[in-house]
Amino acid sequence: MGTATILITGAAGEIGHSLMDLLQRMGERVIAIDLMQPSHLPSGVEFRKLDITDNTAVQHLFRSTDVDRVFHLAGLLSTGGEKNPILAHSVNVQGSFHLLTAAHEATQRNGAPVRFIFPSTIAAYGIPSPQIKDAAGSVREDQYLAPITMYGNNKLYVENLGRYFSNYFQLLCAENHPHLDFRCVRLPGVISAETVPTGGTSDYGPEMLHAAAQGAHYDCFVTPDARLPFMVMPDAVRALMDIADAPRESLTQSVYNVRSFSLTAEEIRQRVLKLFPGASIGYALHERRNAIVASWPGDTDDSAARRDWGWAPSYDVERAFGEYLAPAIRARYGRSARKTGPDLGCVAL
Ligand code: AKB
Question: Has 151 been annotated as catalytic?
Answer without folding.
Answer: yes
